[in-house]
Specification:
Blueprint lengths: L1 E6 L14 E5 L2 E5 L14 E4 L4 E4 L3 E2 L9 E5 L2 E8 L5 E9 L4 E6 L8 E2 L2 E4 L3 E9 L2 E10 L4 E4 L14 E5 L2 E8 L3 E9 L4 E5 L2 E2 L9 E5 L2 E5 L2 E3 L10 E2 L3 E5 L4 E4 L1 E4 L12 E7 L2 E10 L5 E10 L2
Amino acid sequence: MAGKWIKLEQKGTGPGARSSHAVSLVGQKAYVFGGEFTPRVPVDNYMHVFDLEQRTWAILDVTGDVPPPRVGVTMASIGSTIFVFGGRDQEHKELNELYSFDTITNKWSLLSSGDTGPPHRSYHSITADDSCIYIFGGCGNAGRLKDLWAFDTIAHNWIMFPLPGETCHPRGGPGLAACGGKIWVVYGFSGVELDDVHYFDPVTENWTLVETSGDKPSPRSVFSTACIGKYIYIYGGEVDPSDLGHLGAGKFAQEVYALDSDTHVWERLKEEADAGEHPGPRGWCAFSAGTMDGKDGLLVFGGNSPTNDRLGDIFFFIPSL
């Protein structure tokens, strides 16, 4: 297996360098929200949008229930609507509001908060299928979590699923992917970097610990994840945490791996990139699966570098399917 990285030119005033932010692709536009430039200090609450065809940035004029600035936030889109959940505010308080953002009207709406839905958290993970968004894990008020929730975007209600068993430790920064009708939890950080894989079947409501084989990635967290076809792709991530915790930069990976959701075999991809067009080692990126120039792939924007400098570049990875 192989794939190619493309570095995207940026025109206009963009979000700039940041990490712990979120991006979601709707059509040929990438929407960016949240994040930090200085550790633990939210940058802004603008909705930035990047046109993949024109390669230009804009800040949208928005209306409605605009969320306050936050870090460790997640976004996923269904149709023309983006859903934004949780994060941590400038007072380092964990959040649990669910917002929607209508990309046609540029209007924010608060859908749930307080005792409704998942408890407060940041550095959790999100994914979506045709009708539901899924939230898993993260850092809660009393430590790391391992609960899985779904928000049904048609019925507009939250569903809490059964907790996984003892083999699945609470974790922050895991990969989460809706692939093959199942919700996959890949790796993450539980005080140590993890290398386990689990999936949840929403039909049977059963959790399964997956025995993987092949060219298995080393334990890691806060990496970029995308389900394309039957494969779960992961890129980068933190493989050795900093002694300073979130204030520092750990050791980051730079490879792309794919997990076959049918055979449970890992493979490291042969990566092609023109000079200067490989993103290199990084973690805490904003990432989203999507389509560019008619090809499915993984968009990666910004993140943290091994020097603890925030990054502001954009890359698109296209696997050779």
